[in-house]
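2 proteins. here.
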Amino acid sequence: MALLLDIASWLLLLSGAVVAVIGGVGMLRLPDVYTRMHAASVTDTGGMILIIGGLLLQAPHWLIAVKLLLVGLFLLLTSPTAANALANAAIQDGIKPILGGGRRG
């Protein structure tokens, strides 16, 4: 049973790390601030859920699991809020998104 729990935990941790790396590559490769922000916020939230899920499976005590859940809840609330604030700031600065064909909207 413990081996199965370790395998599930490592799968969640590794998949969360892969999602985070994909988000980093998206931040480097995507063309404008809006698509970069989308890549960062979606993979940040998805990777965080997977990593915290893997850590929860390894939590030795219920108090640590509660703390991990509180950190996850905090990140679930703040990450999309920060992305929204950044998008609003970009819009107010007059930054136009790149539309299909490489032209600015």
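next one coming up
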Amino acid sequence: MSNKPGTHQFTVTATEVLLESPILGVRRDTVVMPGGSSAAREVVEHFGAVAVVACDGENIAMVKQYRQGVGDRLWELPAGLLDIANESELFGAQRELIEEAGLEANSWSVLTDLITSPGFCDEAVRVFLAQDLTEVPRPDVDGDEEADMVVKWFPLHEAVAMVFRGELVNSIAIAGVMTADAVIHGRAKARDAAEPFTYRPTALARRRQARGSVPDMKKL
């Protein structure tokens, strides 16, 4: 007899690492299904990431960056991997905001956490709201996609309109823009920047740190 729906424990009985690359891994888990059979489930492992809605009160900073996965340049929020061992989400967001937008902020809060593709990937992203902004020099970049990055300020209402026109399609950016619009206009409240990030991925980070890949966990 099968368990009552919603109560089965999906126990992992075996795990095999199929792929290791600098920014991700792929593993195959053998999982006990309802009824007692076993099934293989491939999981793309990720370090997790952060993104930032930097708002001066009326406008937000966005970046246009080439993405090989879709072969196009996309408007996105300043964002980046949590690929430094034991780095907090807030520190990672502060670092990325300087590197990608040349901004620092005195006020930080959490807009939302999202799991981008739970059907096959453990990637989770924390989106911050950064306010009380100051311009600072961006570090020099050479060779990576960031060297081709465009930074532009958009009125928040225009960024919202871009979502509905299909011009802003990055899921993290959509989540950040829509939640920021709700917070900025008083329809919702942001959370404390130090609130625990429950779904931050750990499997890839643990494996890399066990191999001595610190502080930069992208090094194989």
